[in-house]
Design a protein that fits this description.
- The structure is a single chain.
- This protein has 648 residues and is of the alpha/beta class.
- 33% of the residues lie in helices and 18% in strands.
- It has 3 domains: 113 residues, Aspartate Aminotransferase, domain 1 (Alpha-Beta Complex); 258 residues, Type I PLP-dependent aspartate aminotransferase-like (Major domain) (Aspartate Aminotransferase, domain 2), CATH 3.40.640; 223 residues, Aminopeptidase, CATH 3.40.630.30.
- Helix 16 links the parallel strand 18 and strand 19.
Length: 648
């Protein structure tokens, strides 16, 4: 009987919720295509909205989008952002050397036998110039990485100009020792280029410890990015030597000033930017790719490797009789790619076909079944693979589709509340703040001083249908009306330590029959903005709505021009649902209303994220926007959090 507890195999945690459910498919094929995390899908949709409304695309976005991507790459691989060129493929990076060096007849390039086409055919194109392409055998049965370096050393001659190897072989899964190879190339005065597409993102990689002249990497595999996006790291000294064989006008000095392009001089910007792919700011791809890089930075490639290796151990632990690893790869040369074969080639092919029929997606490469797991994979995925290898019928149904129109169960009696007391007028206690039922006699003066007295404070009322008020008495009269209302039901947000009000919130549009409500009329004094106040206040309100009242849906609506409120909704885990145009007339002007909502099915994830954010030390808090972005709707806030566009 198979074990199913992830801790049995040393798994670091289940990240499958960060990705689509793949429609019931067990997807163990990251070496082919890595899936976009949910946050990256949201980023792509947010960028797509820019193209739907191109009047919002500013000139600077053509540079901020690529710069956000190159900065995220630099953090992941340990280099300066200026040394990263935005590419569309591994081939783009390799071609920088193929087209950028002054090749002479008799020059040599050393590659390994069985290189992926992106790192083979570009070099072979030089053969027409008389350049010799040498192929070195890298045998996965070698007992140590030093043997690879020795074979490369033997192939290098006085005419060798470049050694270009894959970090991880796409067929065997062998991981080359880049540090040893890089040192060898430095000693022999040969340029060292690396195709890292099957490694970066899935394995730790640090250029500060790995002497490479050029690293080319596609973004659609272990980096979990879109197809048609990647990068090339170009060492600063090499960048000065290479001749750009392609002219990308965005890389010309002066291109940032669209008003003076006709007067720009034909001078490339320094460093690797001059090697960027044309039309670099592919908004949709760049946004998705940048979000994926941020996601991997949060997860860390070390965790990806540990998770993948744990799943590999489970595969090896449960292999049926006759199946084995295609090659016994030494520990130091292993990667996240595992290759299996059966007793005969026919058995291997039959097992692959059984896996396909059982909706287990792997690859056949060079006669072996290639398995490539990532953090979205679970033990259940591996169990399904093992069943296919063993020629077993599936033991369970792997996907149950949701049914439209299914009966909604009534809430539990404890959560339902009683009669008119569905939402009670009582204090909600938090760690730093509390929501206290509004008391005009106690709160009027403090709330007036918090929201009046200068233009910054009175700007709080810009998007409200009321305020600012002429005097404390006028505001007190309004507060008395608020305190007497049961819908909206108003609260003061009170700082526990000082007992000072920080602002106001309310529950409104209460629908106990349908179990829905809205959070609104939210404002805070300037000194409490960008603190924990709103995060904890909304956390308390959502807990009351979902945990005690058993709400099915909680809404957040705001003036569509209120960028801060829209960003707050996304940050707090609400999903954008659309804009109601010409919805209201507020203070004599048209108001379009942006609608956001959270469902009960999404609350547990948001609850976990917000609690983790509140509990974390302030200096080490991750971005709550990114934590909740997989749930957030299409909006600029996510693009801002990724650095693609500047803050509004």
């Amino acid at each position: 009987m198979h074990r199913n507890d992830p801790k049995d195999f040393g798994l670091v945690g289940d990240r499958s919720a960060d990705f689509d459910d793949f429609g019931g498919v067990a997807y163990l094929n990251c070496a082919y295509h890595g899936p976009l995390p949910r946050v990256s899908v949201r980023a792509a949709q947010a960028a797509m909205q820019l193209k739907q409304t191109p009047h919002r695309i500013l000139d600077e976005f053509h540079f901020t989008f690529p710069d956000a991507y190159r900065t995220a790459v630099a953090r992941l691989i340990g280099c300066e952002a200026r040394d990263v060129a935005v590419a569309d493929s591994t081939t783009h990076g390799i071609m920088l050397l193929v087209g950028g060096l002054d090749w002479q007849r008799g020059d040599e390039v050393v590659i390994s036998d069985g290189e992926f086409p992106a790192n083979a055919f570009p070099w072979r194109s030089l053969e027409r110039l008389g350049v010799v392409v040498k192929r070195v055998e890298v045998d996965p049965s070698w007992d140590e990485g030093a043997a690879v370096a020795e074979a490369v050393d033997e192939a290098i001659s006085e005419r060798t100009r470049v050694v270009s190897l894959s970090w991880v072989s796409y067929t065997t899964g062998v991981r080359n020792d880049l540090a040893a190879l890089g040192r060898l190339c430095r000693e022999r005065n040969v340029l060292f280029a690396v195709d890292a597409s099957q490694g970066i993102g899935g394995l730790p990689f640090d250029l500060r410890q790995t002497p490479c002249d050029l690293v080319a990497c596609s973004g659609y595999k272990w980096l979990l990015g879109p197809y048609g996006l990647g990068f090339a790291y170009v060492h600063a000294e090499l960048a000065d030597r290479l001749r750009p064989f392609n002219v990308n006008w965005f890389a010309i000095d002066g291109a940032r000033d669209f008003n003076r392009l006709s007067r720009a001089q034909f001078v490339f910007e320094p460093h690797a930017r001059r090697f960027d792919v044309n039309e670099t700011a592919n908004f949709i791809n760049i946004a998705a790719g940048t979000a994926s890089l941020h996601y991997l930075e949060e997860v860390t490639p070390a965790v990806v490797e540990a998770h993948a290796r744990a799943l590999q151990r489970r595969v090896l632990d449960g292999l049926p009789n006759g199946f084995r690893i295609a090659h016994a790869v030494p520990e130091a040369m292993r990667s996240n790619i595992l290759r299996l074969i059966g007793p005969t080639p026919e058995d291997t092919r039959a097992a692959y076909e059984r896996a396909r029929k059982g909706r287990v997606v792997v690859s056949m490469r060079e006669g072996a079944i290639r398995i490539a797991p990532h953090v979205y994979n679970t033990v259940s995925d591996v169990e399904r693979l093992l069943e296919a290898l063993a020629n077993e019928a599936p033991t369970r149904v792997w996907a149950t589709p949701l049914r439209l129109g299914e009966v909604v169960a009534p809430p539990a009696e404890a959560a339902r509340g009683a009669g008119q007391d569905w939402l009670k007028r009582e204090t909600l206690h938090g760690t730093t703040y509390a929501l206290v039922p509004l008391d005009p006699q106690r709160d009027a003066m403090a709330l007036f001083e918090l929201s009046h007295g200068d233009s910054v404070r009175e700007a709080l009322w810009t998007h409200k249908p009321y305020g600012p008020f002429a005097s404390v008495d006028a505001m007190s009269t309004w507060l008395h009306d608020c305190a007497g209302s049961s819908d909206p039901l108003w609260f003061a947000v009170v700082h526990n330590a000082s007992q000072r009000p920080a602002g106001m919130v309310s529950f409104l549009n209460l629908e106990p029959v349908h179990r829905t409500l809205e959070l609104g009329h939210i404002w805070y004094g300037p000194e409490f903005q960008r603190t924990d106040a709103n995060t904890e206040a909304v956390y308390l309100m959502l807990g009351e709505a979902f945990d005690r009242l058993a709400c099915r849906r909680v809404e957040w609506k705001c003036d569509a021009s209120n960028a801060r409120s829209r960003q707050a909704a996304l940050r707090l885990g609400f999903t954008f649902e659309g804009v109601f145009r010409q919805h209201r007339i507020a203070k004599g002007r048209n108001r379009d209303t942006a609608w956001y909502a959270m469902l009960d099915s999404g609350w547990p994830e948001v609850q976990t994220n917000i609690k983790a954010w509140l509990d974390a030390p302030a200096e080490r808090r991750p971005s709550l926007t990114r934590m909740n972005a997989a749930r957030a709707g299409s909006d600029d806030a996510l693009l801002e959090s990724l650095g693609c566009i500047p803050p509004a």
